[in-house]
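Ticket closed. Logging final result for NYN domain-containing protein.
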Amino acid sequence: MLTAILVDGPFFVRRIRQIFPSSIHYDAKVMADLVWRLSAAHLFERNQPKRHLFRIFFYDSPVFTQRVTLPVSRQSIDLSKSREGQFRAAFQRQLQRKRKLAVRLGEPMNVDNWTLNEDALGDLLGKKISVDDLTDEDFSPDAHVRGIELRMGVDLASLAYKRQVQQVVLLTGDGAFSSAAELLRHEGIDVVLDPMWHNISEDLFSYIDGLRSTCPPPDRAADFLSRINSDNFDPEELPG
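Final structure:
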């Protein structure tokens, strides 16, 4: 069975940072390795024949080059020189080196606002910190990226109509793919959703054939990192 794997990049990075220790959050090589390992893990499943990889498609935003004013320090910087901008550039370079992995980039719009990161928001609501404790690194640019959903939809339609694969795995957490998934199923293609342990709405089950997360839950993330660096690592031991 040929399997294509489509990864929603912004969602993937956000979930990894919620699940794994902060020591890897800006490590481009480790993050790129996780994209490959967690995607390829879908080729292995207990009591099922091994699948064969068609290609991994990774959809991401390009590196922002706009000059902006930081929300706390009020300093003016080029976003491409920020910590996040440097990480994204290095991360995408690492991904481009991976075998059978295609990087698809959207089109950025201008950054007009900033969004408080989930960890900082949780600490603030839990009264672990005050507003005065917030730093520039607690915020992310609030910029809508055009083209990611469009590129994903075009690739899914192409896979369906050309009958290039028998299975599609979607690593994402929202329902933007539902119309494309319905098309895939109509063409006889098996559709698996990997929400990376993120809760999904009940109505999404009517658009998929299976649900499986190959990343570890948060309480097993540190152990997972140590095992994947071991020579004894077995892909069939992955969750799901």
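The mean pLDDT is 87. No further action required.
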